[in-house]
TrEMBL record:
PANTHER family: METHIONINE SULFOXIDE REDUCTASE, METHIONINE-R-SULFOXIDE REDUCTASE B1. This is Peptide-methionine (R)-S-oxide reductase. It comes from Cyanidium caldarium. It holds the Pfam family SelR. It comes from the Eukaryota.
Length: 213
């Protein structure tokens, strides 16, 4: 059974239409792929439903965008139970992610420096995998590297992030991946601050930030 979560504008729900009857133009998030609400939309509705585009809505709540971020995080955590992330097809990943998230996390791409949503984020919280929701990094380990990408001195645990040799583009680097779903996160370099001396140079597109309560 597939669980999905997203935002629907108030206008799309007028006339009694639920998640299954939403307007495509009003749907602004899939499975935690949060995007900034468009100006003038007002409040949004967080909908969690099962099945495809015409699935059955099982949970919904009115909220303003900041609250939606927290609510979506909780919904995604509960709906992810039992999913074998390594068995998802390429088409399923495309449906779950934005084009940029798919290119970076599933195809090993790299976002341009200083363009990601999280490189300059200084709020306390946890950075989770945009694909599967696995907690990866704490804001306590984030530091300003001057590179234009979110940088961390260490993951939350050694089991959260896996590493492998990357020989692409004529270089030899250490690639960092989500241990749960193999999402490409970025690369690890030996020029970070003490005590680890490591710099986990990550892509914002591969991460989702969950603010501390």
């Amino acid at each position: 059974m597939t669980f999905r979560a997203g935002f629907v504008t108030a206008s799309a729900l007028r006339g009694g239409r639920g998640a299954g009857g939403r307007r495509a133009s009003s749907f602004c998030g899939v499975n935690g792929g949060l995007v900034a609400p468009r100006v003038g939309c007002g409040r949004w509705r967080l909908c969690v439903w099962v099945g495809g585009a015409g699935g059955t809505e099982v949970s919904a709540a009115w909220a303003h965008p900041p609250a939606l971020v927290r609510a979506a995080s909780l919904s995604m955590s509960s709906s992810a139970a039992g999913v074998n992330w390594r068995e998802l097809t390429d088409d399923e990943w495309r449906q779950r992610l934005t084009p940029e998230q798919y290119d970076v996390a599933r195809r090993g791409g790299t976002e341009r420096a200083f363009t990601g949503a999280l490189w300059d984020n200084k709020r306390p919280g946890t950075y989770v995998c945009v694909c599967c929701g696995t907690p990866l990094f704490s804001s306590d380990a984030k530091f300003e590297s001057g590179t234009g990408w979110p940088s961390f001195s260490a993951p939350l645990s050694k089991s959260a992030v896996s590493e492998r040799v990357d020989r692409s583009h004529g270089m030899v680097r250490t690639e960092a991946l989500c241990s749960t779903c193999d999402a490409h996160l970025g690369h690890v370099f030996p020029d970070g601050p003490p005590p680890t001396g490591q710099r986990y140079c990550m892509n914002s597109a591969s991460l989702r930030f969950v603010p501390k309560e």
